[in-house]
Structure formats: C-alpha cells, structure tokens
Amino acid sequence: MKYAALLAVIAAPAFADCPAGTDYSADIVQIVENMRAAPSEGAARGYSAAMWEIWLDAPDELAQAMLDEGLALNQMGDRAASRAKLSELVAYCPDYAEGYNQRAFAAFLQSDFEAALVDLDAAIALQPVHLGALTGKVLTLIRMGREDEAQTVLRTALAINPWLAERALLDEPVGEDI
C-alpha cells in the first residue's frame, strides 16, 4: 500500500488538481457541540480524537501520501524535509487545512515562529474550529512574546473545547471553573 502511494506521488502530473475531499462539515458541527457539552476531560478527549481523524483524512491518495510522508519526516526529526513535503501538499491542495497546520508544526519545532504563524492563520481561515491550529497559534504567540494575542486565541479555542489541556495557560479563567 505504501509502495502504491509512493508510485502515485511519483507518477502524479505536476498540474493535477486536488479534489475537494469528503465534506465533514456536519460531523465537525456535531463534534464541537459534543465537546462543548462534555461532562469531563475524558469525554472531551474522545471527541477531540474524532476531530483529529477528520483533519488527518486528506482529500485523495496523493495528498494522503504527501501528508503521511511529511508527518513521518517530522517525527524522524527531519524538519526541513518535512516542511518541503508539506509545501508540496499545500501547493497541491491549497484548501486542505491540515497541510498548513502540519507545516506550521514543523516550522515551530525549528523555532521559525513567523512561518508557523502564517501557516496557522491559513489553517484557521480554512477551518475556524481547527483546535490543533488554534492551540498551535497560542503556543507560537507565547514563544513570540505576544501574550495578549495568545490569550485571545486561547479563549477562542476554549469556547470550542473547554477541556483543552492548554486551559492551564489561561491568565484569568472566564466564568466558572473550566
């Protein structure tokens, strides 16, 4: 299977268009509603996992192969190669938020916070409830010394999932205990 995916990447024409992929919008709305109503962190964690399954489902086999390779390279510590592969994914599928989010993560790990922020903003523009991109933006802004902006983004993320681990970074809790 991986060999077939690699062949698809090699054989794909440079001018290929990325398909729209599966429309998960109704699923995402339901997951967000469930997260907001979750009675515990454990319950919310299950919904978060379901959301990650959606984000990591690339629009087609070629995009999935690029994403998987970019993730593997990043996991092996080859950030530059990861960013290059994820840049190919972003060029191929400019409307796929996870390509930007994962490229931002690789940039963050290289302490290239400006590049990470650009990609996080792109991912959030495409998927406003992308908790990975939102929390990544929080951490990036903190590393850049932009605490006030980070707090605003963190509040946005907590409005989606009040059980996020990053809630510990909140300066002043809003309302009742989160």
UniProtKB/TrEMBL annotation:
Family matches, as SMART domains: TPR
N-terminal signal peptide: 1-16
Domain of life: Bacteria
Gene3D superfamilies in the record: Tetratricopeptide repeat domain
Keywords: Signal
InterPro entries in alphabetical order: TPR-like_helical_dom_sf (IPR011990), TPR_rpt (IPR019734)
Protein name: Tetratricopeptide repeat protein
Organism: Octadecabacter dasysiphoniae
